[in-house]
Amino acid sequence: MKILVSDPLSPEGIKILKEDFTVEEKPGLSAQEIISIIGEYEGLVVRSGTKVTAEIIEAAVNLKVIGRAGVGVDNIDVDKATEKGIIVLNAPEGNTISAAEHSIAMMLALARNIPAATCSLKNKEWKRSKFMGVELYNKVLG
What pTM was computed for the model? Predict the structure, then answer.
């Protein structure tokens, strides 16, 4: 199976694909460029950068599967893919750890008034007592 990867993927992901498939990485292609070459491929792997439109799917005469490396498939015309018998799948838990870490970072930033303190410093002001915030120690979330 020949797979087109049209958005940047982690080297680990590419390595796994290459164990069983012929993989061509071509990030940054325009929709017209994808349309002109998609007929050569049985698989397409995208992230959020590539919009898999009905026109791309129509040109994909050999395509059997579209894989979304990430959450959601809002950048893929799922109805058109289904109509053409193309399987669409995603990796809904692919960013779970990143999302959890980001949530914790945002809680810490808000608890310690980091956004407001940053604005204050950019304005060449510093009112330390105004930006002390609260400790999260012994607090319960939820």
Answer: 0.75
For residues 86 and 100, state if they share a domain.
Answer: no
Residue 120's alpha-carbon distances to 53, 58, 87, 107, 117, in angstroms, are 45, 54, 51, 19, 5
Closest CA to 34 of 70, 72, 74, 77: 77
Q: Is the dihedral of CA 7, 48, 17, 89 positive or negative?
A: negative
Q: What is the pLDDT of residue 141?
A: 81
pLDDT means per 10 residues, the chain with 142 residues, are 97 96 97 98 97 98 97 96 98 87 94 93 89 89 79
Give domain status of residue 141, yes or no.
Answer: no
Q: By residue range, what is the domain housing residue 126? A: 96-131
